[in-house]
Amino acid sequence: MTDTKLGWRFPRAFWVANGAELFERAAYYGMFITLVVYLTDRVGFTDVQAGYLAGSFASVLYLLPTFSGILADRIGFRRALLLAFTLLTAGYALLGASQVKSTVIVALALVMVGGSIVKPVISGTAAKCSDENHRARAFSIFYGVVNIGAFLGKSAAAPLRIEFGLEYINYYAALMAMLGLILVAACYRDVDRSGSDKTVRDAMRGLLAVLANFRFLCLIVIIGGFWAIQHQLYASMPKYILRLLGETARPEWLANINPLVVVILVVPITHLIRNVRPINAIAVSLCIIPLSALSIALSPLLQSLAGASVNVGFRTLHPITVMVVLGIALQGLAECFLSPKWLEFASRQAPEGQVGLYMGYMHLSSVFAYLFGFIVSGYMLDRYCPDPRTLDPTAHVQWEAFVRSAGPMPEVYARAHYIWYVFAGVGVMALAGLVAFKIITGKIDARRSRA
C-alpha cells in the first residue's frame, strides 16, 4: 500500500537539481535585467537593434525546451545538465569579455541553448523524484527556488553595474553558472527516465497541430498581449529609469517588486477566485494590466503635483520611481488573477483527447510576447527616450544637467512617458480581444450544439 502521509523528504537528485536551478536563475536574471542596456551602452547596438536581438533571444529560449528536452531524454539528465552549464558558463563569460557584435550574438546563442536544456531537465527531475501525492509540494519548492534565484540575480546586478560596470554582471552570471556546473558534476546522479520516448518529429508535429488550431492560436495572441506588457518591462524600464534618473538609479531592484507581490498575494487571491469562472478572472487580469502601464505614463502628472520628490514614509522617492513601483505592483496583482485560471481556461479550448498536447505549448504566448514586446519597446525608446549618446552636443549637456537635478528636462525626453501609453493600449486591445473571443466562440459553440 502506498504511504499517503505527506512529507518534505525527496531524493538527493531533487535537492541537487534545485540547487543548480538556483544558480541558473541567479545567473540568467542578473544578466537579463540589464541585457538591453548592455547591448546599447557597451556593444553599440541601437535601441531598435537591441530590441530585436534581445526579444529573439528570449522568444527562442521559451520555444527550444520542447526540443532540448527530447535531447536530454536521449543522452541522460546528468549529461544534459553538464552540457547546459558548460554552455552557460562559456556564454556568459564570452558575453562579458567581448563587445564585438558578432561575438555577442554567439554568446547569447550559447546561453539560449544552455538555458533551454536546464528548464526541462530540472522540472523533469522534480517530476521524477516525486509521486502523485507529493508532486504539488515538489513543484512548490521548485517555483520557490526559481523566485529566490531571480531575486538574488537582480539584486546583485545593480551594485555590480554601479561599482564595476555592466560587463561584470555577465562575469557574475558566468560564476553562478560555473557553480551550478560544479554542483552537478559533484553531486547529481541520473534519475529514471523510463517512458520518455518522444521524438523531434513528434514535437514538430504537435507544434504544427497547435498552430493550425485558429481558436487556440487567437487565445495565445490575446494572452500574449498580457505577457507582452509584463515581459517588455525588461526592455523598457531599465533604460527609461537610467536615462531619466541617472546611472545611480537601481531599476534592477524595482523589477523584484513583481515577484514579491506574486509571492504575497497569489495564494489568497487564488482562494478568493476559486469559484469564479476562468474567463471572468482572466478578464480581471486584463483590466488591471493596462492600468499598470498607464500608472507609469502618469508620472509627469505626479511630478507636477508633488515636485521632484515624494515622501513615502520611510524615505523620499522621485515621482517616476513611485509610479514605476505602482505599475510593477499592479502587474504582479494582475498575474495573480491570470495564472490560477489561465491553464484551466485554455485546456477547455483544446480538442477532446488532446489536452495534454495543447498544454505542452502554452508557453507560445510568451514566445510571442517577448518578440512583440521587445521589438515595440526598441522603437518606442528610440523615438521617445533615446540613447543620450545619440543626442546633439547641446541636448547632451542639458541631459547631463537634468540627471544631476541641475536643469530642466531636455525637450527630447519630454514625451518619454508616451512609451507606457503605447503598452497600455496593447493591454486594452488584449482585453477587447478576449471579449470578442468570448462572444464569437460562444455563438459558434451555440450553433454547433443546435446542429
Structural write-up:
The longest helix is centred in the last third of the chain and has 33 residues, at 418-450. The chain has 20 helices and two strands. A hairpin with a 4-residue loop joins strand 1 (310-311) and strand 2. 77% of the residues lie in helices and 1% in strands. Helix 11 (233-245) packs parallel to helix 18. The mean pLDDT is 90. The protein has 451 residues and is an all-alpha fold. The radius of gyration is 23 Å and the shape is globular. It has two domains: 11-197, Growth Hormone, Chain: A (Up-down Bundle); 199-451, Growth Hormone, Chain: A (Up-down Bundle), CATH 1.20.1250.20.
Quick structural gist:
This protein has 451 residues and is mainly α.
Query: What's the SSE pattern?
Result: HHHHHHHHHHHHHHHEEHHHHH
State the CATH architecture of the largest domain.
Up-down Bundle
CATH class of the largest domain: Mainly Alpha
The CATH topology of the largest domain, please? Growth Hormone, Chain: A
Q: What's the story with the biggest beta sheet? A: 2 strands, antiparallel
Low-confidence stretches: none
Number of domains: 2
Q: What's the mean pLDDT score?
A: 90
Query: Can you say what the CATH homologous superfamily of the largest domain is?
Result: MFS general substrate transporter like domains
| Strand neighbour order, sheet with most strands | 1-2
Which structural class best describes the helix and strand composition?
A: mainly alpha
Outline, from the CA principal axes?
globular
Number of strands: 2
